[in-house]
Sequence to fold (282 residues):
Amino acid sequence: MFINNENIFLIVLAIIWIIGAVLQDLRRREVDNLWNFSLIAFALAYRAAVSTYTGNYWFILNGIIGLVIFLILGNVFYYSRVFAGGDAKLLIALGTILPLSYNWAVNFKIFGAFILLFLITGAFYVLIWSLFLVFFNFNRFKKQFKKQFKNYRLIFAISLIFSVLWIIAVIFLNKMYFIPIFFVILLFPVLFVFAKAVEESCMIRSLSPSKITEGDWLYGDITINGKKIEATWDGVSEKELKWIQKYSRKNILIKQGVPFTPGFLFGFLVLIYILYKIPGWF
Fold:
């Protein structure tokens, strides 16, 4: 069983820390580094205490190994621009929690299940969030959707050509179970344009310099008092933020993404439910 006396504290600790991260993300669009790193410290301290008490040092070693594995995964997600910095660090911190078994073949299954679950639940959550944004900004979204559709007409044309070729290949090879991929190919440009339209119409904010925080994404490159500040995936650095707040006399356009930490919460809760109800899956 995974939900045992050793692991129950780790599970509760993770849920509390993820909820804290969600509240920070929803309120400020960022998660404090100290919050994420403190989860690592508490989890490893608990594992060390349990290992010392039981004399089984694999409990602490599992946490360290999990941390190293998720450090690699977090950096992969960050540098491939799937996650922002706070999300990647929360994922890394959960590496100290998720080795819930002494069998590493089982632990790798748990890791894979968690990543799959939070990506799936996160995708549904982001879609619902986006639909709410569209509802409250429908006129702006409609204009942007038309504009983005014109900008990316070529993608629609390519998608249509590939979908027709795919159907021909499926019929010729008599592999009818591959037909659903036809709809995926057709749907991709629609979702791409939808996402771009939502971003341009609902996620761009004009903020005064005093309200900009470290890590905020600039909508575009800006020049302030002769200094060019580039819009990068890393967001505004501490040094750039001080320059903006010292010399800028007008509002700055900031691009705000959908806070993704709720996906971690949904994915983790579903994983724990499966581990409790259907432990045989692992």
About this structure: The beta strands are 204-207, 217-218, 222-224, 227-229, 252-255. Residues 204-255 form one domain. The mean pLDDT is 86. The longest strand covers residues 204-207.
